[in-house]
Amino acid sequence: MSASTQPVLSLNKLTKRYHQTLAVNDLSLSLYPGDVCGFLGPNGAGKTTTLRMILGLVQPTHGSVAIHGINVHTSPTQALQGVGAIIEESHFYPYLTGEQNLLQVLRLRGLKVAPADLRERLHAVGLGEAARRRVRGYSLGMRQRLALALALIQAPQLLILDEPMNGLDPAAMREFRTHLADMAQTGVTILLSSHILSEVEQLATRLVFMKEGRIVGRDDQLRTPTLQLQVRVTDRDKLQHWLSERHHEFTQGPDDAFTVAVVSEMDCPRLVREWVLAGFDILEVRPTAQSLESQYLARMTQPGEDVNDV
User: Fold this and answer.
1) Other residues' Cβ atoms within 10 Å of the Cβ of residue 268
2) Residue 107 and residue 103: Cα distance in Å, rounded?
Protein backbone atom coordinates (compact mmCIF):
# COMPACT_ATOMS: atom_id res chain seq x y z
CA MET A 1 0.00 0.00 0.00
CA SER A 2 1.44 3.29 -1.08
CA ALA A 3 1.78 5.85 1.67
CA SER A 4 0.22 8.43 -0.67
CA THR A 5 -2.94 6.38 -1.27
CA GLN A 6 -5.95 8.11 0.24
CA PRO A 7 -8.11 5.92 2.50
CA VAL A 8 -11.50 5.01 1.09
CA LEU A 9 -12.93 4.94 4.62
CA SER A 10 -11.54 6.75 7.67
CA LEU A 11 -12.91 6.54 11.21
CA ASN A 12 -11.33 9.05 13.56
CA LYS A 13 -11.88 8.55 17.31
CA LEU A 14 -15.46 7.52 16.61
CA THR A 15 -17.56 7.38 19.78
CA LYS A 16 -21.26 6.75 20.42
CA ARG A 17 -22.89 6.97 23.83
CA TYR A 18 -26.50 6.10 24.59
CA HIS A 19 -27.19 7.70 27.97
CA GLN A 20 -24.93 5.71 30.33
CA THR A 21 -23.99 3.08 27.75
CA LEU A 22 -20.81 3.57 25.74
CA ALA A 23 -21.61 1.57 22.59
CA VAL A 24 -18.53 2.61 20.57
CA ASN A 25 -15.48 4.02 22.29
CA ASP A 26 -12.79 6.11 20.55
CA LEU A 27 -12.54 3.91 17.44
CA SER A 28 -10.07 4.77 14.65
CA LEU A 29 -9.68 2.75 11.45
CA SER A 30 -8.62 3.31 7.84
CA LEU A 31 -9.47 1.10 4.85
CA TYR A 32 -7.90 1.37 1.39
CA PRO A 33 -8.87 0.34 -2.16
CA GLY A 34 -9.23 -3.43 -2.43
CA ASP A 35 -9.27 -4.06 1.33
CA VAL A 36 -11.70 -6.76 2.50
CA CYS A 37 -11.93 -6.18 6.23
CA GLY A 38 -13.58 -8.74 8.48
CA PHE A 39 -15.27 -6.79 11.28
CA LEU A 40 -15.66 -9.33 14.07
CA GLY A 41 -16.98 -9.49 17.60
CA PRO A 42 -19.82 -10.83 19.75
CA ASN A 43 -23.33 -9.41 19.78
CA GLY A 44 -23.28 -6.09 21.62
CA ALA A 45 -19.66 -5.33 20.71
CA GLY A 46 -20.66 -2.14 18.85
CA LYS A 47 -20.24 -3.40 15.28
CA THR A 48 -23.71 -2.53 13.94
CA THR A 49 -23.67 0.86 15.68
CA THR A 50 -20.33 1.57 14.00
CA LEU A 51 -21.68 0.54 10.59
CA ARG A 52 -24.77 2.71 11.06
CA MET A 53 -22.56 5.70 11.91
CA ILE A 54 -20.51 5.05 8.75
CA LEU A 55 -23.73 5.24 6.70
CA GLY A 56 -24.98 8.40 8.42
CA LEU A 57 -27.89 6.58 10.05
CA VAL A 58 -26.62 7.35 13.56
CA GLN A 59 -24.96 10.57 14.65
CA PRO A 60 -21.71 10.00 16.58
CA THR A 61 -21.30 11.51 20.02
CA HIS A 62 -17.67 12.35 19.18
CA GLY A 63 -15.32 11.73 16.29
CA SER A 64 -15.90 11.58 12.57
CA VAL A 65 -16.41 9.34 9.54
CA ALA A 66 -14.99 10.23 6.12
CA ILE A 67 -15.44 8.43 2.81
CA HIS A 68 -12.87 9.46 0.19
CA GLY A 69 -12.04 12.34 2.51
CA ILE A 70 -15.63 13.66 2.66
CA ASN A 71 -17.30 13.88 6.08
CA VAL A 72 -20.38 11.66 6.16
CA HIS A 73 -22.24 13.72 8.74
CA THR A 74 -21.69 17.16 7.23
CA SER A 75 -21.95 16.16 3.53
CA PRO A 76 -23.87 12.86 3.52
CA THR A 77 -25.15 12.95 -0.06
CA GLN A 78 -21.71 13.55 -1.51
CA ALA A 79 -19.89 11.19 0.86
CA LEU A 80 -22.25 8.25 0.37
CA GLN A 81 -22.23 8.26 -3.42
CA GLY A 82 -20.85 4.95 -4.57
CA VAL A 83 -21.57 3.20 -1.26
CA GLY A 84 -23.60 -0.02 -1.12
CA ALA A 85 -24.82 -1.51 2.14
CA ILE A 86 -26.78 -4.21 3.91
CA ILE A 87 -27.56 -3.33 7.51
CA GLU A 88 -29.73 -5.67 9.55
CA GLU A 89 -32.94 -6.99 7.96
CA SER A 90 -33.98 -5.54 4.60
CA HIS A 91 -37.65 -4.83 3.89
CA PHE A 92 -39.27 -4.95 0.46
CA TYR A 93 -42.73 -4.45 -1.02
CA PRO A 94 -44.22 -7.96 -0.97
CA TYR A 95 -46.70 -7.29 -3.81
CA LEU A 96 -43.93 -6.21 -6.22
CA THR A 97 -41.52 -8.49 -8.02
CA GLY A 98 -37.84 -8.52 -7.16
CA GLU A 99 -37.04 -6.48 -10.26
CA GLN A 100 -39.85 -3.99 -9.52
CA ASN A 101 -38.57 -3.54 -5.97
CA LEU A 102 -35.12 -2.57 -7.27
CA LEU A 103 -36.65 -0.18 -9.81
CA GLN A 104 -38.75 1.43 -7.08
CA VAL A 105 -35.69 2.03 -4.90
CA LEU A 106 -33.87 3.56 -7.87
CA ARG A 107 -36.81 5.88 -8.55
CA LEU A 108 -36.93 6.98 -4.91
CA ARG A 109 -33.20 7.76 -5.06
CA GLY A 110 -33.53 9.57 -8.38
CA LEU A 111 -31.15 7.14 -10.04
CA LYS A 112 -31.13 5.36 -13.37
CA VAL A 113 -29.61 1.97 -14.11
CA ALA A 114 -29.59 0.33 -17.51
CA PRO A 115 -31.94 -2.71 -17.71
CA ALA A 116 -28.99 -4.92 -18.69
CA ASP A 117 -27.07 -3.83 -15.55
CA LEU A 118 -30.14 -4.49 -13.42
CA ARG A 119 -30.47 -8.01 -14.79
CA GLU A 120 -26.73 -8.57 -14.33
CA ARG A 121 -26.96 -7.71 -10.63
CA LEU A 122 -29.94 -10.05 -10.17
CA HIS A 123 -28.13 -12.87 -11.96
CA ALA A 124 -24.98 -12.21 -9.92
CA VAL A 125 -26.86 -13.00 -6.69
CA GLY A 126 -28.73 -15.99 -8.15
CA LEU A 127 -32.12 -14.32 -8.72
CA GLY A 128 -32.18 -14.33 -12.51
CA GLU A 129 -35.00 -16.90 -12.61
CA ALA A 130 -36.98 -15.29 -9.76
CA ALA A 131 -36.59 -11.63 -10.73
CA ARG A 132 -40.18 -11.39 -12.00
CA ARG A 133 -41.81 -13.25 -9.13
CA ARG A 134 -43.55 -11.36 -6.32
CA VAL A 135 -41.39 -10.95 -3.24
CA ARG A 136 -44.17 -12.29 -0.99
CA GLY A 137 -43.26 -15.74 -2.33
CA TYR A 138 -39.52 -15.37 -1.67
CA SER A 139 -37.75 -17.45 0.96
CA LEU A 140 -35.50 -15.78 3.57
CA GLY A 141 -32.46 -16.63 1.48
CA MET A 142 -34.03 -15.12 -1.66
CA ARG A 143 -34.87 -11.91 0.20
CA GLN A 144 -31.27 -11.71 1.36
CA ARG A 145 -30.09 -12.17 -2.23
CA LEU A 146 -32.37 -9.31 -3.28
CA ALA A 147 -30.80 -7.13 -0.58
CA LEU A 148 -27.37 -8.04 -1.97
CA ALA A 149 -28.50 -7.08 -5.48
CA LEU A 150 -29.65 -3.73 -4.11
CA ALA A 151 -26.29 -3.16 -2.40
CA LEU A 152 -24.45 -3.92 -5.66
CA ILE A 153 -26.76 -2.14 -8.07
CA GLN A 154 -24.74 1.08 -8.37
CA ALA A 155 -21.37 -0.69 -8.82
CA PRO A 156 -20.20 0.65 -5.41
CA GLN A 157 -16.64 1.58 -4.53
CA LEU A 158 -17.32 0.82 -0.86
CA LEU A 159 -19.50 -2.02 0.43
CA ILE A 160 -20.74 -2.10 4.04
CA LEU A 161 -22.16 -5.54 4.83
CA ASP A 162 -23.73 -6.58 8.13
CA GLU A 163 -24.38 -10.36 8.22
CA PRO A 164 -24.94 -10.49 4.43
CA MET A 165 -24.89 -14.30 4.24
CA ASN A 166 -27.73 -14.97 6.68
CA GLY A 167 -30.23 -17.29 5.02
CA LEU A 168 -27.97 -18.23 2.12
CA ASP A 169 -27.37 -21.88 1.34
CA PRO A 170 -23.76 -23.11 0.91
CA ALA A 171 -23.85 -22.80 -2.90
CA ALA A 172 -25.16 -19.23 -2.69
CA MET A 173 -22.51 -18.36 -0.09
CA ARG A 174 -19.80 -19.62 -2.41
CA GLU A 175 -21.19 -17.66 -5.37
CA PHE A 176 -21.46 -14.48 -3.33
CA ARG A 177 -17.98 -14.92 -1.83
CA THR A 178 -16.54 -15.33 -5.32
CA HIS A 179 -18.37 -12.22 -6.50
CA LEU A 180 -17.03 -10.15 -3.58
CA ALA A 181 -13.49 -11.41 -4.18
CA ASP A 182 -13.74 -10.40 -7.84
CA MET A 183 -14.98 -6.94 -6.81
CA ALA A 184 -12.08 -6.52 -4.38
CA GLN A 185 -9.66 -7.36 -7.21
CA THR A 186 -11.03 -4.34 -9.11
CA GLY A 187 -10.38 -2.05 -6.11
CA VAL A 188 -13.74 -2.16 -4.33
CA THR A 189 -13.34 -1.81 -0.55
CA ILE A 190 -15.44 -4.11 1.62
CA LEU A 191 -16.20 -3.91 5.34
CA LEU A 192 -17.81 -7.22 6.31
CA SER A 193 -19.39 -8.02 9.66
CA SER A 194 -20.34 -11.69 10.00
CA HIS A 195 -20.51 -14.49 12.53
CA ILE A 196 -19.84 -17.06 9.78
CA LEU A 197 -16.10 -17.16 10.43
CA SER A 198 -15.37 -19.76 7.76
CA GLU A 199 -16.62 -17.38 5.08
CA VAL A 200 -14.74 -14.40 6.51
CA GLU A 201 -11.54 -16.48 6.68
CA GLN A 202 -11.73 -17.30 2.96
CA LEU A 203 -12.50 -13.74 1.87
CA ALA A 204 -10.93 -11.18 4.20
CA THR A 205 -7.49 -9.64 3.73
CA ARG A 206 -7.64 -7.80 7.06
CA LEU A 207 -9.30 -8.47 10.41
CA VAL A 208 -10.56 -6.14 13.12
CA PHE A 209 -11.78 -7.64 16.42
CA MET A 210 -14.22 -5.60 18.52
CA LYS A 211 -15.23 -6.13 22.12
CA GLU A 212 -17.22 -3.81 24.39
CA GLY A 213 -17.07 -0.98 21.88
CA ARG A 214 -13.32 -1.03 21.33
CA ILE A 215 -10.91 -2.65 18.90
CA VAL A 216 -9.05 -5.32 20.87
CA GLY A 217 -7.05 -6.87 18.05
CA ARG A 218 -6.31 -6.84 14.36
CA ASP A 219 -4.56 -8.83 11.68
CA ASP A 220 -3.36 -7.02 8.56
CA GLN A 221 -1.65 -10.12 7.11
CA LEU A 222 -4.58 -12.54 6.97
CA ARG A 223 -3.51 -13.97 3.62
CA THR A 224 -0.43 -15.26 5.46
CA PRO A 225 -1.66 -17.87 7.98
CA THR A 226 -0.52 -17.49 11.55
CA LEU A 227 1.88 -20.42 12.03
CA GLN A 228 2.37 -22.23 15.31
CA LEU A 229 4.56 -25.06 16.51
CA GLN A 230 3.09 -27.50 19.03
CA VAL A 231 5.68 -29.31 21.13
CA ARG A 232 5.71 -31.72 24.09
CA VAL A 233 8.87 -32.43 26.06
CA THR A 234 9.71 -34.39 29.21
CA ASP A 235 10.66 -31.30 31.24
CA ARG A 236 7.88 -28.69 30.86
CA ASP A 237 9.29 -26.24 33.41
CA LYS A 238 12.68 -26.18 31.69
CA LEU A 239 11.09 -25.49 28.27
CA GLN A 240 8.88 -22.77 29.73
CA HIS A 241 11.95 -21.05 31.18
CA TRP A 242 13.83 -21.46 27.88
CA LEU A 243 10.99 -19.91 25.86
CA SER A 244 10.44 -17.04 28.31
CA GLU A 245 14.16 -16.24 28.47
CA ARG A 246 14.24 -15.89 24.65
CA HIS A 247 10.99 -13.89 24.49
CA HIS A 248 9.09 -16.44 22.39
CA GLU A 249 5.30 -16.07 22.30
CA PHE A 250 3.75 -19.28 23.61
CA THR A 251 0.78 -20.79 25.42
CA GLN A 252 0.46 -23.94 27.53
CA GLY A 253 -2.24 -26.49 26.84
CA PRO A 254 -3.91 -28.95 29.23
CA ASP A 255 -2.18 -31.90 27.48
CA ASP A 256 1.32 -30.77 28.59
CA ALA A 257 1.93 -29.25 25.13
CA PHE A 258 3.32 -25.81 24.37
CA THR A 259 2.07 -23.85 21.37
CA VAL A 260 4.84 -21.57 20.10
CA ALA A 261 4.24 -18.77 17.58
CA VAL A 262 6.58 -18.79 14.57
CA VAL A 263 7.03 -16.31 11.74
CA SER A 264 7.69 -18.72 8.87
CA GLU A 265 7.94 -22.43 8.11
CA MET A 266 11.74 -22.23 8.24
CA ASP A 267 11.52 -21.32 11.93
CA CYS A 268 10.16 -24.80 12.68
CA PRO A 269 13.28 -26.88 11.89
CA ARG A 270 15.49 -24.17 13.39
CA LEU A 271 13.63 -24.33 16.72
CA VAL A 272 13.71 -28.15 16.75
CA ARG A 273 17.48 -28.09 16.23
CA GLU A 274 17.89 -25.57 19.07
CA TRP A 275 15.81 -27.71 21.43
CA VAL A 276 17.82 -30.83 20.64
CA LEU A 277 21.11 -28.98 21.14
CA ALA A 278 19.75 -27.58 24.43
CA GLY A 279 19.21 -31.14 25.65
CA PHE A 280 15.41 -31.36 25.55
CA ASP A 281 13.83 -34.80 25.17
CA ILE A 282 11.14 -34.13 22.56
CA LEU A 283 8.06 -36.35 22.73
CA GLU A 284 6.08 -34.68 19.95
CA VAL A 285 6.36 -31.69 17.63
CA ARG A 286 4.12 -30.56 14.77
CA PRO A 287 3.45 -27.30 12.91
CA THR A 288 -0.12 -25.97 12.64
CA ALA A 289 -1.83 -22.89 11.22
CA GLN A 290 -3.98 -20.91 13.64
CA SER A 291 -7.58 -20.82 12.43
CA LEU A 292 -9.71 -17.69 12.46
CA GLU A 293 -11.98 -19.39 14.99
CA SER A 294 -9.10 -19.87 17.42
CA GLN A 295 -7.94 -16.27 16.88
CA TYR A 296 -11.47 -15.03 17.51
CA LEU A 297 -11.96 -17.07 20.68
CA ALA A 298 -8.57 -15.97 21.99
CA ARG A 299 -9.45 -12.31 21.44
CA MET A 300 -12.88 -12.63 23.04
CA THR A 301 -11.88 -14.66 26.10
CA GLN A 302 -8.63 -12.95 27.04
CA PRO A 303 -7.91 -9.31 27.91
CA GLY A 304 -6.71 -7.67 24.72
CA GLU A 305 -4.39 -4.78 24.07
CA ASP A 306 -6.23 -1.60 23.14
CA VAL A 307 -5.33 -1.11 19.48
CA ASN A 308 -8.03 1.33 18.39
CA ASP A 309 -5.66 3.52 16.36
CA VAL A 310 -5.27 1.29 13.30
Assistant:
1) 18
2) 6
Q: Is 26 exposed, middle or buried (0-12, 13-18, 19+ CB in 10 A)?
A: middle
Q: What is the Cα–Cα distance from 7 to 277, expressed in whole angstroms? A: 49
User: String of b and e for 272-292 (b: at least 16 CB within 10 Å)?
Assistant: eeebeeeebeeeebebeeeeb
Q: Is the dihedral of CA 49, 50, 51, 56 positive or negative?
A: positive
DSSP-assigned letter for residue 276: H
Strand partners, 271: none
CB atoms closer than 10 angstroms to residue 110 = 6
Which domains can be identified in the chain, with CATH numbers?
9-219 (3.40.50.300), 226-301 (3.30.70.870)
If one counts every other C-beta atom within 10 angstroms of the C-beta of residue 224, the result is 11
**pLDDT, tens digit (0-9, with 9 covering 90-100), for 236-280:** 899 999 999 988 888 887 678 888 888 777 888 899 999 999 999
Cα(61)–Cα(18) distance, integer angstroms: 9
pLDDT tens-place string over residues 25-43 = 999 999 999 999 999 999 9
DSSP, res 133: S
| Contact of 216 with 209, CB cutoff 8 Å | yes
Cβ atoms within 10 Å, residue 206: 20
**Closest Cα partner for 38 from 178, 168, 205, 276?**
205
Could you tell me if 132 and 75 are in contact, meaning their C-beta atoms sit under 8 angstroms apart? no
Question: What does pTM read for this prediction?
Answer: 0.74
CA distance 164 to 90: 10
